[in-house]
Amino acid sequence: MKKILAILTIGTLIISCGESIEQKATHHLDNAKQAFSMGNYNVAKQEIDSIRILYPKAFEARKQGIRLMQQIEETEQMHIIEYEDSMIAVTQAAFDRIKADYTFEKDERYQDIGLYTIKSQAPQRNTDRTYIRAQVDELGRMTLISSYRGSSYIHHDWLKLSVGEVYVDTPESNDRHEFTDLGVCYEWLSFINGKDGGAAAFISANKDADIRYTLYRKAGQEESRPVYRNLKLNKDDRYAIASLYNLSQVLLSLNEHKNLRDEAERHLKFIRSRMKDESTEEGVQEDK
Q1: Model confidence at 194: pLDDT above 70
Q2: Hey, is 195 helix, strand or coil?
Q3: What Rg value do the Cα atoms of the chain yield, rounded?
Q4: CA 152 centroid distance within chain
Q5: What span, in angstroms and rounded, lies between the C-alpha atoms of 241 and 247?
Q6: Residue 232 scores a pLDDT above 80
Q7: Is 256 exposed, middle or buried (0-12, 13-18, 19+ CB in 10 A)?
Q8: How far apart are CA 135 and CA 121, in angstroms?
Q9: Position 45 pLDDT exceeds 80
């Protein structure tokens, strides 16, 4: 008799313990629901995580917590999409206002991504001088090009640009194209996809100043030497590069917002697919 009583007592304690755990877990679940309704998504997630960590055997509360977590994630992605849509509209409008200032070039046979340039900087219009030009692709990636002409090649690798005592150095570039036309040597040294050491931003910030630059050639293992000194970046080139730099920032922002929206769309699709699968699975279990 005593053994039976002991077994019943233990069973009662276990049931009581189980009820207490569920009740405590449900308290966190209620807090999570309230936080979710108020838009405090991080707080709601923390409350759901507390159920998983503190009450791993509160199966019903954990099950409801998983459903609520999915609703939170769904709502978050919908908010992200709404925000990114608004930012895309604003940034697209900014691009539409300025795009007529540029020449767009794209050969559909060979190019997946087109380029924006400014007519005054076209190489065919500037065969008689050494200068710096720029271009921006449709994704917003900017390329600076140091265009040199002379009686012989200088094989320059990088540039130093300065305004008074303030200066910026580009990194070394191996993207150099050299050719000769009617006895004149030409070099085009490119700093692609914004990898110019901040030179384009420097020109944009100092477009109204007297910008000087020097072409350098790497002479040895650790040293470089100037091969063309104290060139002046004229006003037209400063303004053209500054304008293209602004275009680059607009397009980079536009494409970033589009990428974030696409990512949120993919995430939302995944969440809803998971919610649908779990709902179907529960329906099948109930039918049984």
Answers
A1: yes
A2: coil
A3: 32
A4: 42
A5: 10
A6: yes
A7: middle
A8: 9
A9: yes
Angle at CA of residue 141, ends 214 and 90, nearest 5°: 125
Residue 146 per-residue DSSP state: E
Q: Nearest-CA neighbor of 175 among 199, 143, 151, 197?
A: 143
CA distance 85 to 176: 40
pTM of the full structure:
0.84
Residue 239: CB atoms within 10 A of its CB come to 16
Range with the poorest average pLDDT among 2-16, 119-133, 232-246: 2-16
- Tell the burial category of 212 from Cβ atoms under 10 Å away from its Cβ (0-12, 13-18, 19+): middle
Give the H/E segment covering residue 169: strand 166-169
Helices (H), 99-198: none
Q: How far apart are CA 50 and CA 27, in angstroms?
A: 11
**Contact assessment for residue 218 and residue 157, using Cβ atoms and an 8 Å cutoff:** yes
As a residue count, the chain comes to 288
Distance CA 72, CA 80 (A): 12
How far apart (Å, rounded) are the C-alpha atoms in residues 33 and 36? 5
Q: At a CB cut-off of 8 Å and minimum separation 6, what does 233 contact?
A: 131, 132, 161, 203, 211, 212, 213
Structure-token pair, residue 208: 């109204």
Q: Assess contact for 211 and 200: CB atoms under 8 A.
A: no
Structure tokens at 51: 């159920």
Instruction: Name residue 121's amino acid.
Output: Q
**Cβ atoms < 10 Å from Cβ of 51:** 26
Burial of 53 (0-12, 13-18, 19+ CB in 10 A): exposed
The DSSP 8-state label assigned to residue 172 in this structure reads: P
**What pairs with residue 103 in β-bridges?**
117
* Cα Dmax for the chain: 115
